[in-house]
Amino acid sequence: MNTMGNDLIENTCLDNVKDIRISEETKALLICRAKLSDIYNTVFNVVNKTYSKDTDDVFEGFSDKFNEFDHKLMEVISTYVEVISLDRNYTQM
Hints:
This protein is mostly helical. Helix content is 70%, strand content 0%. It has 4 helices and no strands.
């Protein structure tokens, strides 16, 4: 006989995740990342069209700095989503 009642098993957070909403702040941070990607792709397209040599030479250092900034931005987004998700009991991220 199972003596554990269903009231011991908590599913509130799981149920909330099913209908999670994205906050305006999270959306704004994701838009920043999308803009950053667009900037990188635009620079790449211009350099690729303009130079007939390997773009890696032209991009030396640029890609590293871009990736470093992108990584930091993702850390901020990840931390923000984590805090908001926990704070709002997984109803919003």
